[in-house]
């Protein structure tokens, strides 16, 4: 076959122990991180306001102010345990306030009045409020979406290939999702990175790419298996490695940019 | 292993095939359509005019819109529905001014596109409302109740005078309200969130002699119209006029209560305002003294209102009362500054992303990489043109989906190139290699794209509106990428002269048999 002729192709099957080791190095800390998150936040990842309910207010004060001053006003308004951070919007300083759910409009008006009294006028850059009622619902919807996607993909791969192919594909994507979740669990522990409903779409994207790559390999195996028998699997997989490598590189070049646009 | 083919006049035959093929024409057609629908050129003055209209709000916009619709031929003969449609169209036109992206100016003309931008990019508010059952009258939220809520919310939002608003049912008891470019979200929430149930009550006494306000079955729903007007004292009041049935009832009530008091309550609170501008406590509320029977069905609600309060109340009364109270479950408001900032960042992200992919493709594949880049440009234009035509509202998540779909589009090209390379290695000539490469790559491209579409459709079904934007752009992108891979890349690969060759293969005198499904 053609692939066997190329000299520069890495024989991946030969080094399978190495790949398994890399995989373990990637997943094990993540699993530990997820466990630690469960202990600390009561969830596998640090949930954002989309899932817990809460408010994120980004305000730009006309006069310079300190984070402590903002924090003090929040405490006075009864929003204990709030986080205040600084950010830059369009090159100007702004304050990000993460508070527990502000359920009533009255509470919000009071907070705004207090902030104006203490720190002067401000411009609301963005206001995100999710009530505690809807948070868990967004989460269960998100998880349901993941399960339904898994089911749909298993059904389709079983139809186009075989059921055991589908199981392999699912195993591969669970691995990929686990790596992503592990990284975010660690980020959550280290920097307080929260996951929101966009994270669910990020997971689905990873699933999409994972299955995409798996299918490319399957397709090749399906095509050649009948001609070369079991001996042929090796060169086939070798070739695929090269292809998938290109894939991974292109996607890898896009992902940081993607993250940049999401986390504006 | 290599296959030695026989000599053949392959190239002539190929060219004939090439021109008999529909694909080159499809490529040119799509390119022309994309450019035509994506870009528009108008005098600069027009854009300024649209933007002026887009900056008007409230009454000014309403006046301007009415002025314009009245000039529409046949306006006099239109029925109310047609008129409403015309007004809506005019508001949408006004909204277009907010969505114009000028790309270039030349000699007084402007080249622009108008992709519809979502709330997070142009600024605005999105609210998720929930209707709450109000037993005993409304023990559960039924579809007719929601219809009532929808109508009232719609009326109130229209009274805000914001263009391009959207009110949409979501599930059994919820509404999504979108208010793009709104200047005062707080005012909007106040107007949307209150029930605006105006009730007339009479003062009665319990058996123990304790006074209380008793409902008489006369409410703001019986009004024909209401209007805020100034009083001599510098405060404002709300003039109202009852419908016939209400007028009769009101006449009977006032005849019976001459010399006594009628209480007017809004959402259970007296309409009178204290010194602090809030409703007076119910125990201190005196009501309004009835001096004589009022038979004409007209009256005033006096309560020391400010101008804004009176106008607001009148608008709410005209819009009608909500059949049940509502709660704001979720609010997402983005200021225009942040929107601008996000657009800027997205453009950079998109531009750098595409550029990086393009450079990568040329670096790896050389000339075919350049072809993939051209296909990618066609892909980008076609996808954006579809976004504009549908129209798809572009949000940050949507742009993320689009950028991601670029990755998928390039993937298809990589698969095709790798397969073609193999065919060339196997000793096929250029034409055959390209054709076979496509045939063989197509099954994996198709299967993987179907899987992406499965993920997208799940997101559209279960996702929040935020995530739906992502799913829609990704799905459109995946579909378009199938098209550009099949047509554009293939057509352009065939255009490469055999003398140049592909992937370092210049061999010409090779087998010329197009692959059938059985042969390998």
Summarize this structure as a short list of keywords or feature phrases.
heterodimer, A: 264 residues, alpha+beta, Alpha-Beta Plaits, 4-stranded antiparallel sheet, 8 helices, 12% strand, elongated, B: 520 residues, 4 domains, 5-stranded antiparallel sheet, 15 strands, 52% helix
Task: Record the SSE blueprint.
The complex is a heterodimer of chains A (264) and B (520).
Chain A: H1 16-41, H2 49-52, E1 54-61, H3 67-76, E2 83-89, E3 92-99, H4 105-119, E4 122-130, H5 135-160, H6 163-191, H7 197-228, H8 233-262
Helix pairs in contact in A: 1-6, 3-4, 5-6, 5-7, 6-7, 7-8
Chain B: H1 10-20, H2 23-38, E1 40-43, H3 44-55, H4 58-70, H5 80-96, E2 101-106, E3 109-113, H6 119-122, E4 124-131, H7 143-160, E5 166-169, E6 174-180, H8 185-193, E7 198-205, E8 211-219, E9 223-230, E10 236-242, H9 244-256, E11 261-266, E12 269-270, E13 288-289, E14 298-305, H10 307-319, E15 326-334, H11 336-365, H12 367-389, H13 396-425, H14 430-462, H15 465-495
Antiparallel strand pairs in B: 1-3, 2-3, 4-6, 4-15, 5-6, 7-8, 7-11, 9-10, 10-14, 11-12, 11-13
Distance between the termini of chain B: 12 Å
* Separation, N- and C-terminal Cα atoms of chain A: 49 Å
CATH topology of the largest domain in chain B: Multidrug efflux transporter AcrB transmembrane fold
N-to-C series of helices and strands of chain A: HHEHEEHEHHHH
Low-confidence stretches of chain B: 1-13
- Note the beta-strand portion of chain B: 15-25%
Into which percentage range does the β-strand content of chain A fall? 5-15%
In terms of structural class, how would the helical and strand content of chain A be classed?
A: alpha+beta
């Amino acid at each position: 076959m053609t692939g066997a002729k190329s000299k520069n192709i890495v024989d991946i099957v030969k080094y399978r122990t190495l790949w398994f080791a890399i995989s373990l190095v990637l997943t094990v800390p993540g699993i530990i991180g997820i466990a630690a998150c469960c202990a600390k936040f009561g969830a596998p990842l640090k949930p954002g306001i989309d899932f817990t309910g809460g408010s994120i207010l980004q305000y730009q004060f006309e006069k310079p102010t300190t984070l402590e001053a903002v924090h003090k006003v929040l405490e006075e308004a009864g929003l204990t345990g709030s986080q205040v951070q600084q950010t830059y919007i369009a090159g100007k300083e702004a304050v990000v306030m993460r508070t527990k759910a502000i359920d009533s409009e009255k509470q919000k008006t009071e907070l705004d009045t207090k902030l104006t009294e203490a720190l002067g006028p401000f411009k609301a850059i963005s206001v995100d409020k999710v009530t505690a009622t809807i948070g868990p619902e967004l989460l269960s919807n998100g998880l349901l979406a993941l399960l339904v996607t898994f089911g749909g993909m298993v059904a389709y791969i079983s139809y186009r290939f075989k059921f055991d192919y589908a199981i392999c594909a699912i195993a591969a994507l669970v691995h990929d999702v686990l790596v992503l979740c592990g990284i975010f669990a660690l980020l959550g522990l280290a920097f307080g990175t929260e996951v929101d409903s966009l994270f669910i779409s990020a997971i689905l994207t990873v699933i999409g790419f994972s299955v995409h790559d798996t299918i490319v390999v399957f397709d090749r195996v399906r095509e050649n298996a009948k001609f070369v028998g079991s001996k042929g699997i090796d060169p086939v997989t070798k070739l695929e490695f090269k292809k998938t490598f290109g894939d991974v590189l292109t996607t890898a070049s896009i992902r940081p940019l993607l993250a940049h646009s999401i986390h504006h | 292993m290599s296959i030695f083919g026989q000599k053949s006049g392959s190239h002539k035959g190929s060219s004939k095939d090439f021109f008999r093929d529909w694909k080159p024409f499809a490529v040119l057609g799509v390119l022309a359509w994309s450019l035509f629908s994506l870009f528009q050129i108008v005098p600069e003055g027009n854009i300024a005019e649209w933007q002026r209209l887009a900056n008007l709000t409230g009454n000014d916009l309403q006046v301007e819109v009415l002025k314009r619709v009245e000039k529409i031929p046949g306006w006099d003969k239109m029925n109310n529905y047609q008129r409403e449609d015309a007004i809506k169209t005019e508001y949408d036109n006004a909204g277009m001014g907010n969505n114009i992206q000028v790309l270039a100016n030349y000699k007084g003309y402007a080249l622009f596109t108008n992709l519809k931008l979502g709330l997070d990019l142009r600024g605005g508010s999105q609210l998720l409302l929930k209707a709450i059952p109000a037993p005993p009258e409304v023990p559960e939220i039924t579809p007719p109740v929601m219809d009532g809520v929808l109508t009232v919310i719609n009326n109130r939002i229209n009274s805000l005078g914001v263009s391009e608003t959207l009110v949409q049912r979501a599930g059994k008891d919820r509404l999504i309200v979108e208010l793009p470019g709104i200047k005062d979200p707080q005012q909007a929430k106040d107007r949307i969130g209150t029930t605006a149930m105006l009730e007339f009550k009479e003062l009665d006494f319990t058996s123990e002699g304790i006074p209380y306000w008793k409902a008489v079955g006369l409410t703001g729903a019986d009004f024909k119209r209401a209007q805020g007007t100034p009083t001599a004292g510098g405060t404002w009041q709300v003039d109202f006029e009852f419908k016939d049935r209400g007028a009769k009832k009101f006449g009977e009530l006032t005849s019976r209560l001459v010399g006594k008091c009628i209480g007017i309550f809004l959402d259970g609170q007296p309409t009178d305002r204290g010194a602090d501008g809030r409703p007076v406590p119910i125990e201190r509320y005196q009501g309004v003294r009835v001096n004589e029977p009022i038979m004409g069905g007209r009256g005033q609600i006096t309560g020391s209102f400010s101008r804004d309060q009176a106008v607001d109340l009148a608008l709410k009364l005209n819009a009608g009362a909500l059949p049940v109270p509502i709660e704001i479950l979720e609010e997402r408001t983005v200021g225009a500054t942040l929107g601008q900032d996000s657009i800027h960042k997205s453009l950079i992200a998109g531009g750098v992303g595409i550029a990086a992919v393009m450079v990568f493709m040329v670096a790896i594949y050389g000339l075919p990489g350049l072809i993939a880049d051209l296909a990618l440009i066609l892909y980008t234009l076609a996808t954006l043109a579809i976004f504009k035509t549908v129209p798809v509202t572009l949000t940050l998540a949507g742009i993320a989906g689009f950028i991601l779909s670029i990755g998928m589009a390039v993937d298809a090209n990589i698969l095709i190139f790798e397969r073609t390379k193999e065919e060339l290695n196997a000793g096929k000539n250029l034409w055959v290699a390209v054709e076979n490469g496509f045939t063989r790559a197509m099954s994996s491209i198709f299967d993987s794209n179907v899987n992406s579409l499965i993920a997208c459709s799940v997101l559209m079904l279960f996702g929040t509106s935020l995530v739906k934007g992502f799913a829609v752009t990704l799905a459109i992108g995946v579909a378009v990428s199938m098209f550009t891979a099949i047509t554009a890349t293939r057509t352009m690969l065939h255009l490469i002269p055999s003398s140049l060759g592909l992937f370092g293969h210049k061999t010409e005198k090779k087998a010329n048999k197009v692959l059938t499904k059985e042969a390998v």
